[in-house]
């Protein structure tokens, strides 16, 4: 039998074995015995957001739009960007065009892109300095995305969802990508976060049942 923690022992002492509680009694008791605290993404100092370069890539073809000045067009194309330009693409997006997966741009053009928030925001396509998609070195950012760099953030429920590969990968490749992602999450633990940080981990394919992973097994 697993050893009980101090808080678990205190909780067990408050709950009377075999007793049936009323809703009101249970509501009061649950507040007394709950000590675990989780990350609250509504607070800026507890937001978990970052990027990770998966060692085996994502297995997906990522269409990259580079909104750059003429001085960086050639470098962005050479790095693998699928669409390269500036004003013509700004106008296309205003008309509803979003046939790309990631937008990368230079800081000086964010003024032009800010007006596209209504189209890009709901689709999660707005570039952001924190995810490395607003950068002076667009070519480097394009190359990283093409090689398997992904960005992620915790949702309002404290959950992080992301794709780390395909079922066609070898088991070792999937495990390596998963470990790299989880280690990145661990490094991003907010300084103010106390108690349980990673409560549970599940791995699944698009249509499979989730497989629960022991957080203590992470290398």
Q: How would you describe this structure to a colleague?
A:
- There is one protein chain.
- With about 220 residues, this protein is α/β, with parallel strands linked by helices.
- It has two domains: about 40-60 and about 150-219, Ribosomal protein L1/L10, rRNA-binding domain (Ribulose 1,5 Bisphosphate Carboxylase/Oxygenase, 2-Layer Sandwich), CATH 3.30.190; about 60-145, Rossmann fold (3-Layer(aba) Sandwich).
- It has helices spanning about 5-15, 25-35, 70-80, 85-95, 110-115, 115-120, 140-145, 170-185; strands at about 50-55, 65, 85, 100-105, 150-155, 200-205, 210-215.
- The strands form three sheets. The protein has a three-stranded parallel sheet with strand order 3-2-4, with helices on both faces. Strands 1-5 form a two-stranded antiparallel ribbon. Strands 6-7 form a two-stranded antiparallel ribbon.
- The longest helix is centred in the C-terminal third of the chain and has 17 residues, at about 170-185.
- The mean pLDDT is about 85.
């Amino acid at each position: 039998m697993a050893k009980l923690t101090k808080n678990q022992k205190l909780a067990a002492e408050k709950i009377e074995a075999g007793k049936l509680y009323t809703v009101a009694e249970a509501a009061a008791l649950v507040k007394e015995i709950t000590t675990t605290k989780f990350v609250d993404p509504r607070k800026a100092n507890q937001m978990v957001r970052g990027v990770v370069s998966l060692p085996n890539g994502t297995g997906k073809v990522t269409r990259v739009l580079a909104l750059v000045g003429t001085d960086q067009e050639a470098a962005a194309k050479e790095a693998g960007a699928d669409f390269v330009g500036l004003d013509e693409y700004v106008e296309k997006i205003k008309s509803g065009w979003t046939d790309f997966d990631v937008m990368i741009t230079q800081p000086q053009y964010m003024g032009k892109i800010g007006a596209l928030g209504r189209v890009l925001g709901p689709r999660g396509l707005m570039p952001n300095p924190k995810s490395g998609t607003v950068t002076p070195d667009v070519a480097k950012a394009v190359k990283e995305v093409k090689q398997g760099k992904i960005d992620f953030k915790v949702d309002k429920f404290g959950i992080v969802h992301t794709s780390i590969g395909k079922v066609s990968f070898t088991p070792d490749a999937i495990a390596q990508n998963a470990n790299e992602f989880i280690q990145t999450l661990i490094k991003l633990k907010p300084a103010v976060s106390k108690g349980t940080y990673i409560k549970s981990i599940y791995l699944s394919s698009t249509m499979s049942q989730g497989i629960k992973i022991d957080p203590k097994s992470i290398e």
